[in-house]
Amino acid sequence: MNNALTILDDFFPEYEAIRAFALTHDFDQAPEYDGHKYPGFAPIKDPRFGEYLAGLLSEVTGCRVGIRMACFTAGRENFETVQWIHADTLCSSHAGVVYLFDRPGYGTAFWRHRELGEDSLTRASRECLNAEALAARLQHDGQTEAAWQRTDYADSRKNRLIFYPSDRFHSRYPQQAFGDAPDNCRLTLAIFFDILP
User: Which of 26, 55, 126, 190 qualifies as a FRET site for 10, CA 20 to 30 Å off?
Assistant: First the structure.
């Protein structure tokens, strides 16, 4: 499978039903992953949804897909995120986002670190540098847009799926979201998956 950014429109055949299902979730919790709390994240209630999602992703990628994790996210105005520009290397080989709102201009940006010259957190870059120092640096720089050069952007569009190698530096863009409740904010489905043999 190609390692570039992939954009597919009209991903869910039953978009309105999926959006309604997303809105039944509790976005006021802040689940913890990898030692960080993620406010506005809602783990998916029904395990059958993961199987359904794996089937759809397998169909569009032409590969067998295993879902590692998926959750709905509700990014609201004045919503502070633990991390902004980051890579998702601990969980899976690929990451994806489905936009469950209808408002352009609130998509996903991809970045290259200006000083390090890297657009992904590859194994080589992790091995060449002190891992702890690198993690601290990227966490700090991840909140500062001036430390990065934007290399690509996928705009938000209702029912659009984007997916990419999870080691690519990315963020929602712009950093500030909109709305004050799950039904009028930057509602997304975040997917972390592997391509299976």
Answer: 26
